[in-house]
Design brief:
Elements: H1 2-10, H2 16-25, H3 43-54, H4 79-87, H5 103-111, E1 130-133, E2 139-143, H6 146-153, H7 157-166, E3 169-170, E4 174-177
Amino acid sequence: MGDRLVSHIFNYSSNIHLQRAIALYGLPAFVFLVVEFCKPDDLLQREQHWLNWLFALASRLRYNFSPTAGSMLGFKHSLESRALMSEVKKGALNNMYGETHSEETKALMSEAKKGDKHPHYGKEINPLGVCVYNHDGVLVQSFSSRATAAKWLGTSAMSVCRYVRSGKVFKGLYILKI
């Protein structure tokens, strides 16, 4: 929790709404506390429980913008933020502006992913389908694509990919496999 608190207060790419409120009212006006201790495997499920409670309150009473635990789903950057993010990647501000990889670098990148160095080497992969299992290994639902699995799970397709790769339990409920 300490790392999160420090990030929100001092990292200006973090929760700017909270930072402005702290600047306006002062840190002593806020209370930061642990509402529940839980096992690491239950963390996302319990966080979702508390987010559901929080998002039942009026928006003016909360500083959390994402209603989904472990996901940015439900959060939308403002037009101003999107324009700024786009601007900082344009032209000379882009770290590859005016650059191209040399043929030698391209060959090295290619070699680094060949054969048994490739992350999918020796794995049988269905690039589209996702199966959702419970803790007992029982198939709960099968999807023909990551996008449909993501919609059913209430998360993003990228999150589905990450959980498939990591083998971690999604929201304390499901194991995702391809």
